[in-house]
Specification:
The structure holds two protein chains of two kinds. Chain A is 37% helix and 19% strand. Chain A is globular. Chain A is α/β, with parallel strands linked by helices. Chain A is built from twelve helices and 13 strands. In chain A, helix 4 (99-115) packs across helix 5 (146-159). The N and C termini of chain A lie far apart (70 Å). By secondary structure, chain B is an all-alpha fold. Chain B has helices at residues 6-22, 27-43, 49-70, 76-110, 125-140, 150-158, 171-174, 177-180, 185-220, 235-266, 284-290, 293-304, 314-332, 336-355, 364-386, 390-401, 403-406, 411-430, 434-443, 447-474, and strands at residues 225-226, 229-230. In chain B, helix 2 packs across helix 6. Chain B starts with 5 loop residues before the first helix and ends in an 11-residue tail after the last helix. Classes of the chains: A alpha/beta, B mainly alpha. Chains A and B meet through helix 1, helix 2 and helix 3 of A and helix 1, helix 9, strand 1, helix 18 and helix 20 of B.
Chain lengths: 386, 485
């Protein structure tokens, strides 16, 4: 009798889930059937079926729950394994980077600095990393070299005579609680951390470059904070599901003071133009419209996406300074707040921007400062393809 | 197409079940459906290989017909037909599986320069070739009737449940079932439960054990770093990898056999058991009575006994045993590692015969020692089996015992032990007949205990299915280890 009930449930499941999966995956299978080489067709169709499996995310969650129940702290992922840290956060781990490779990247930074126009300030900023430097929060046996690689890169860049700033040290100096600056389920910093970092950078501009600095812009009291409760499952959490990782709150931090910008961006789908205040230009609220842990990316409610290049003119700027920021996806939350410090802020993501060599770009454009700001996980040729 | 894939369980299997049971009462049509879909199943990954299988089916059907017609008259002509059939099957196997290996070795040995063709190995060729030979030989021996309908031979050889990873189903086992099987609700239900158990053995235990084993052998081969830092294989990691592979191959292989037996039952076929808790064996002799039973009995009945078995001189018996274990090694793959693996078992079996270790042990203390001895050599043999080359195997074993040089514990050993130890523990527990033991105890404890047992096993089987599906949908590591077979 027992096996008969099992058989009934089994047959129901394979027919119902199978039928739903066929409906979900059919468009992809038909598309791939006409575009995929014959030798790869069966594996492509299998991938289509698995990727479009009925209730896929519930299954990912179920798997995460199972892994949690058996006490596993690593969850394998085809893209990148993730770990449950000793403080409960979901973290990645980064390989040790060969010093020769680090030196190559440091030399690329020097090359870019040499190509900058005379009088242009040049600064390399090491952005903070989820695991605090010197801490060990990954499971036993997992050796995370992200901070060590970052230290080595900073040393190599400094040895080349380039000015640097280490925001990890700035966090310590400010006495901030390091782990509260990051999402539990995502590798990015929180928007409030980006606001703080923009303030630190602006103060640096004032101290080192002699530019105007208004601390008012970086005091969170002068911002409206709207918290979207349990709204965000970050990229690391998406790999294992929210039943394992939990979810994050997401803050939308918008200024109470007057703002006015003009904005252009080069995205994969074309040029984007926006005009108006902070809410209109810097925030894409539709990214927060629906709570969808696996399909939505609320992080990109700031700016709207990981664009190749953005150009922002602050119509109410305190100065007439032009800054070029070359950065990774941390920039999405940094740009809105850093825009208040200068008249013109151009940001380029070197990983995606291929219009021209960045060394040619900087020599053909006049900036008052060029800042390269990378987080300690960004060690890839395309990010230093200057 | 792997059994442990979403496309098999949620698309292929429902399709076959639907078409098959829609034609209930029409056995010929049902057999055609199974046959055509089995060929589709085989052709899924590499369509061209289906032609080789169809060639094998056609030739063996033809030989079977001749043998069936002239079986009663006997004589040398019949023996010649049998010999031709065996030569055909072995030639097919040799060309696709061993020709490249043979030519490479000739070139190395004689410093010759014979051009080596690039021949891909058709998946499961060893399994279906042995089944094909079994068909003609069993017809010759009168253990089954020759099939006049080629589709029935095609179904026997290509039936998808046992096609790529066994068990090797003998013709005599299912000759009658091809046309006269009886599908029952109970068989179907038992088949589903057996399939789920096999699936969970493969997906939950074997695939997770494979993560450790593959890493250990990767580090041993010098192709791995640990978070970007080059490392040597520590003794601890080497042992962990060896134990993990021991678990992986058992739960993968026996899981596949369980799935095959379960799928067979869903369609009314009854295959023989292929594994019987081999890791509780107290001798190598016992191990091979419990491991891959369909292969060892195939060699016993189709090679060892025809060579004279043990009813001959001692020297001849040793020779017969040698041939069987040489063939067993070669059957598993075209590599010296498999040959040495087979011959190691030959040496161990000879040792046991000469010392009486092959006899049943009734003393519990010596039983434990014998179990340790058996498992030790089984694990060592798996290292040879798993390694890419003999030198790699020796190197790996060297790392296991040279802890003063390589260290006992390092980061990978700590990490894999802590994070995957639970799967190894589950593997160790379920390698023993603990479940049948619990069931037996509860069954004898009264009706209430039996009910509890039924409810618990019902919940456990359903949970195992859901967990297995979650691993498959997540796209977890799902290696296929029979590509050499």
């Amino acid at each position: 009798m027992k096996n008969r009930i099992i058989a009934i449930i089994f047959v129901l499941l394979i027919f119902v889930l199978g039928g739903k999966t066929v409906i979900n995956s059919a468009p992809y299978v038909f598309e791939d059937a006409s575009t995929t080489p014959y030798s790869e067709l069966s594996s492509t169709i299998e991938a289509d079926v698995t990727n479009n499996f009925a209730q896929k995310y519930t299954w990912i969650n179920a798997n995460g729950l199972f892994q949690k129940l058996i006490g596993k702290r690593i969850v394998e992922n085809s893209e990148k394994d993730v770990y449950r840290a000793s403080n409960g956060m979901i973290v990645g781990a980064n390989d040790y980077i060969d010093p020769a490779v680090i030196q190559k990247y440091a030399d690329k930074v020097s090359l870019l600095a040499k190509n900058a126009n005379q009088g242009c300030e040049f600064l390399f900023v090491e952005l903070p990393y989820k695991e605090k430097s010197g801490d060990k929060i990954t499971p036993d046996g997992v050796d995370n070299y992200a901070n060590i690689n970052a230290d080595n890169l900073l040393s190599a860049i400094q040895a080349n005579g380039i000015k640097t700033m280490d925001l990890r040290e700035e966090i310590d100096k400010a006495g901030l609680d390091h782990y509260s600056l990051f999402f539990n389920t995502d590798h990015h910093w929180k928007p409030s951390t980006a606001l703080w970092a923009a303030g630190v950078l602006n103060r640096h501009f004032a101290d080192e470059f002699g530019w105007e600095y208004n601390p008012y812009y970086y005091d969170i009291k002068n911002y409206k904070v709207k918290t979207y409760k349990d709204w965000f499952l970050g990229a690391q959490g998406k790999r294992i599901g929210d039943w394992y990782s939990g979810v994050d709150d997401f803050d939308l931090i918008t200024p109470k003071f007057d703002t006015s910008y003009s904005f252009t961006a080069d995205s994969a789908s074309g040029t984007i133009n926006r005009e108006g205040d902070f809410n209109k230009v810097m925030i894409k609220k539709k990214r927060l419209k629906n709570k969808n842990y696996f399909k939505a990316s609320p992080y990109y409610a700031y700016i709207g996406g990981d664009y190749k290049i953005t150009e922002i003119h602050n119509n109410l700027a305190l100065n007439n300074k032009k800054v070029l920021l070359i950065s990774d996806s941390y920039k999405c939350t940094l740009i809105p707040y850093l825009s208040n410090a200068v008249s013109d802020l151009t940001t380029i993501d070197a990983r995606y921007y291929k219009k021209m060599k960045l060394s040619d770009y900087v020599s053909s454009h006049k900036y008052d400062a060029i800042i390269i700001a990378y987080n300690p996980t960004v060690f890839e040729d395309r990010a230093f393809d200057f | 197409m792997l059994f442990s894939s979403t496309i098999f369980i949620f698309i292929f299997l429902p399709t076959v079940l639907l078409l098959y049971y829609a034609c209930k009462g029409h056995r010929k049509i049902q057999n055609i459906i199974l046959c055509v879909l089995s060929l589709f199943f085989y052709a899924w990954g590499e369509p061209k290989f289906v032609l080789i299988m169809m060639c094998s089916i056609a030739m063996n059907w033809f030989f079977g017909l001749i043998v069936g017609r002239h079986r009663e008259s006997g004589g040398n002509k019949l023996k010649l037909v049998i010999a031709l059939d065996i030569v055909f099957n072995l030639a097919l196997l040799f060309i696709f599986k061993y020709l490249v290996f043979t030519l490479n070795n000739i070139n190395s040995l004689f410093s010759s320069n014979i051009s080596v063709p690039d021949i891909a190995l058709p998946i499961g060729i060893s399994f279906f070739t042995f089944q094909a030979m079994s068909y003609v030989i069993d017809v010759y021996r009168g253990k089954g009737e020759a099939q006049t309908n080629i589709l029935n031979v095609a179904l026997y050889i290509s039936f998808f449940p046992q096609l790529i990873a066994g068990p090797i189903v003998r013709y005599e086992t299912i000759a009658d079932q091809i046309n006269n099987r009886q599908e029952t609700v109970q068989d179907f239900s038992d088949g589903v439960a057996r399939f789920i158990i096999g699936l969970s053995k493969k997906v939950i235990i074997a695939n997770n054990a494979a993560i450790i084993a593959d890493k250990a052998f990767e580090i041993a081969g010098g192709g791995a770093s640990w978070f970007g830092v080059d490392i040597a294989l520590s003794s601890g990691m080497a042992w962990l990898g060896a134990i993990a592979y021991t678990m992986q191959i058992f739960f993968d292989f026996s899981g596949y056999s369980d799935m095959a037996i379960g799928l067979g039952k869903m369609f009314g076929f009854h295959f023989l058991e292929n594994f019987n808790y081999p890791y509780i064996s107290r001798s190598i002799t016992e191990f091979w009575r419990r491991w891959h039973i369909s292969l060892s009995t195939w060699f016993r009945d189709y090679v060892y006994i025809p060579l004279g078995g043990n009813r001959c001189s001692k020297a001849r018996n040793i020779f017969n045993t040698f041939v069987v274990w040489l063939c067993t090694g070669i059957w598993h793959g075209a590599n010296w590692t498999f040959i040495v693996w087979g011959l190691l078992y030959f040496a161990l079996l000879m040792f046991e015969r000469s010392t009486g270790l092959n006899k049943e042990c009734k003393n519990s203390a010596s039983g434990i020692l014998r179990w340790i001895y058996t498992l030790f050599f089984v694990i060592m043999a798996w290292i040879i089996f798993r390694a890419d080359s003999l030198s790699s195997a020796i190197d790996y074993i060297g790392h296991m015992f040279n802890w003063s040089t390589y260290g006992m514990i390092d980061s990978p050993a700590i990490f894999y032990f802590q994070e995957y130890g639970i799967f190894l523990l589950a593997g160790i527990v379920f390698s023993t007949p603990v479940i049948p033991w619990i069931k037996e105890k509860l069954s004898s404890a009264g009706a209430a205990a039996r009910t509890i047992c039924d409810v618990l096993s019902f919940i456990a089987i359903l949970l195992l299915f859901l967990i297995s599906v979650s691993f498959m949908v997540k796209g977890s590591y799902n290696p296929f280890i029979y590509f050499n077979f």
